[in-house]
Design brief:
Elements lengths: L1 E2 L6 H10 L4 E3 L3 E2 L14 E2 L2 H9 L3 E7 L2 E6 H9 L3 E3 L4 H10 L6 E4 L3 H11 L4 H15 L7 E4 L5 H16 L13
Parallel strand pairs: 1-8, 2-7, 3-4, 8-9
Antiparallel strand pairs: 3-6, 5-6
Helix pairs in contact: 1-7, 5-6
Length: 193
């Protein structure tokens, strides 16, 4: 599981990992938020109506879900089960509360916290992104400070420095490799979901 505060670069890191064609399954999060320019449905997110999202929750089709910044986000359970059933390692991008939810349901899940080099760098990234109003930007920054306090919940920390994305990707690859080499490997099986 890859998590971290808003603006830390989770999407950018995952995009770089995908370009490297690593043998991993990357979940596509479902959301009720509006689609941003350049995003593709089913690739970047599954863009759903609030009604459809709630139906999936009620049917137990979400591994985890939460309302974040006024919109619902969740990880569809079936894509995780299907990938694990094929023997693939699964990378889930989740916010901090989503990571906590999945860890509670699947204690053997491995949590990686992607952190900025500094909070000042994170604030600058969020400002340059220009995807939030001034009020939303302030809320995201305030939330990021709170999320940094949850770092002890994670097994690994990866610093994503500005313009050093390849280093962050290499560190995540090293974590996957190290976990596969454990004498007693941990892992989630599809029948446990």
């Amino acid at each position: 599981m890859l998590s971290g505060p808003s603006g830390v670069g989770k999407d950018a890191v995952l995009a770089r990992m995908k370009r490297k064609a690593l043998p991993l399954h990357y979940t596509v999060t479902a959301t009720t938020r509006p689609q941003r320019e350049g995003e593709r449905d089913g690739v970047d997110y599954h863009f759903l109506s609030a009604e459809r999202f709630q139906q999936m929750v009620e049917r137990g089709e979400m591994l985890e879900w939460a309302k974040v910044y006024g919109h619902w986000y969740g990880v569809p359970r079936e894509q995780v089960k299907e990938a694990l059933g094929r023997g693939l390692d699964v990378i889930i991008k989740a916010d901090i509360q989503g990571a906590a939810t999945i860890k509670k349901a699947c204690p053997q899940a491995i949590l990686v916290f992607l952190t900025p080099h500094s909070m000042e760098e994170l604030e600058e990234r969020l400002r340059k992104r220009k995807t939030e109003s001034t009020i939303d930007l302030g809320l995201r920054i305030k939330t990021a400070y709170q999320e940094m306090k949850r770092l002890p919940m994670f097994e690994y920390v990866v610093v994503n420095r500005q313009d050093e994305i390849d280093l962050a990707v290499a560190q995540i690859e090293a974590i996957v490799t190290a976990e596969k080499r454990r004498r007693k490997p941990r892992g989630v099986r599809y029948n446990e979901l």
